[in-house]
Specification:
The protein is α/β, with parallel strands linked by helices. Helix content is 26%, strand content 23%. It has 7 helices and 10 strands. Strands 3-2-4-1-5 form a 5-stranded parallel β-sheet, sandwiched between helices. Helix 6 runs antiparallel to helix 7. It is elongated. The termini are far apart.
């Protein structure tokens, strides 16, 4: 009998931010395929019967190929197992979810998606700022700061990203932010626009740095990032 796959969103890393459904799926899983950023205390909710398999991908480090992850998902489900595919943050945000769904659909494998707390929401909560502000930030946009090569994407919508009335959250953007900031300022975003660097959100080593777009760009120039981080900028609250 074919098994079942649950795509479970682990949130930013704090196990207390898991949903009740996420905890239930982890507790009853036969196998958990987990991302690097979805490991740690979150895996403590997996039952003793669960086989834990790391399939994480991190920039600049040895990582599982997406084709390998897809094949593992399919093989485990076809073996009749209850599979949890544990993804960091919310599974639907920059998590390669669509490719894995397509692999399951090609084999007729039943599945579900369990949403979770995105790291953007967790970062804003940790900094005690809203992602929207009445009259000044009526729009929120999530963007990636890196393409598959690790560089700044070549199809940046500068008009949208330089909108001073939007709160922008940049995922995977530490290395490219100096170049991104240069383009934003060139397209009209004031250099003094508030910015926040949120590192290791939801983990004990969490760090928050409040700055400006220009100031943060200068700080990150030539810095090799060790911890996962988000960058928020726009009309942020103090």
């Amino acid at each position: 009998m074919t098994g079942f796959v649950s795509f479970v969103s682990s949130g930013p890393g704090d196990p207390e931010l898991l949903t009740l459904k996420a905890v239930d799926r982890l507790r009853h899983a036969d196998v958990v395929l987990f991302d690097d950023l979805a490991s740690g205390p979150v895996l403590g909710h997996a039952g003793p019967q669960a086989e834990l398999i790391a399939v994480g991908k991190r920039a600049g480090r040895p990582s599982a190929k997406q084709e390998h992850v897809n094949a593992l998902l399919v093989a485990q489900a076809l073996a009749g197992r209850r599979v949890v595919r544990l993804k960091s943050g919310d599974a639907g945000i920059f998590g390669r979810l669509e490719e894995e769904l397509a692999a399951l659909a090609a084999h007729g494998i039943a599945h579900e998606i369990v949403p979770g707390v995105t790291s953007a929401s967790a970062a804003a909560a940790a900094a005690e700022i809203p992602l929207t502000r009445r009259l000044t930030a009526r729009r929120v946009q999530f963007v990636t700061g890196a393409d598959v090569t690790g560089g700044l994407p070549g199809d940046v919508n500068w008009a949208a990203l330089a909108d001073p009335a939007a709160t922008t959250v940049v995922f995977m953007g530490q290395r490219t932010f100096p170049r991104l900031a240069e383009g934003l300022i060139a397209h009209g975003l004031p250099p003094g626009t508030p910015a926040l660097l949120a590192e290791a959100v939801g983990h004990p080593e969490q760090a928050l740095l409040r700055s400006t777009v220009a100031g943060l760009a200068a700080r990150l120039e030539g810095v090799r990032a060790e911890n996962p981080a988000l960058i928020l900028y726009g009309p942020l609250a103090d």
